[in-house]
Amino acid sequence: MSKGLLYVVATPIGNLEDVTFRAVKVLQGVDFIAAEDTRHSRPLLSSQGIDTPVLSLHEHNERDKSAWLIERLIDGESLALIADAGTPLINDPGFPLVQQAVQAGIKVVPIPGANAMVCALSAAGLPTNRFLFAGFPPRQLTQRLNWLRALQRETGTLLFYESSHRIIPALSDMAEVFGRQREAVVARELTKLHETFLRGTLEALQIEIERDANQQRGEFVILIHGYSGNSGDRVMVDAEKILEVLSEELPVKQASALTARITGQKKNELYQRILRKKRNEM
Ligand code: SAM
Q1: CA of 18 to the centre of ligand 1 (A)
Q2: What pLDDT is stored for residue 280 in this prediction?
Q3: d(CA 15, CA 12)
Q4: What residue's CA is closest to ligand 1, atom 19?
Q5: Does this model's pTM top 0.90?
Q6: Element (H, E) at 97
């Protein structure tokens, strides 16, 4: 193994058989491995007979620890960076280390492999010629809605990561912002036993997942068809704006009733939406 190199090594996103020959060779050959959670990576390393020393590099220590790792690389040691799952740096730690390595003139070598977003995109059946990976939506409602709104007119396929406890609110807010009729795919538990692709409109997907507790378990990639300028998209954009403006001026009940009349959407749903928003703003 070449000395003084930083290898960025992708590991499986569920199915251990997805580790590559090259990843195993590199992980066996380097002086040490920096892992997000050393306990989490242990089963993968043991399954491949890898006994290279492992130290932890996670979001809470990576700024401080990266400088020390760079020293070791400059001293000629070789290091492999891995995340808990998939490709490091993709919504996982490693950016400060790679950035500092580049600045220090250290060679960074990617070892490609699994990545949930690309895996989902490859089988979803949505356009792949242009896409935008947005990562995790913000947790706070107002922030999330504004963040989603900035993507409303993106024409490429949109990709998001989401966890099991926020999958339903995420789909609901996406339907609100992008339009209930926007085509989408929910890819769940990729490469694992319960791998599922659900396809349909945002509204239909939300209903289907709400009804079935099993569909709410595991890890998710949400894919949304890009903006195509059709009327279904535009109506939903307007409804959201109308609701926002009216609820600033009128009592909640009246604002939701008027928005329902203008847009044809359900009064009660609009009412709940305003309440949810107000609660989050408190
Ligand atoms: N570095 C990883 C990658 O390359 O995909 C992503 C890590 S990020 C912290 C974890 C998120 O990725 C999960 O919450 C989920 O949204 C998505 N994810 C990871 N593994 C997945 C899987 N097997 N199926 C579906 N989504 C997955």
Answers
A1: 14
A2: 74
A3: 6
A4: 116
A5: no
A6: helix 95-103
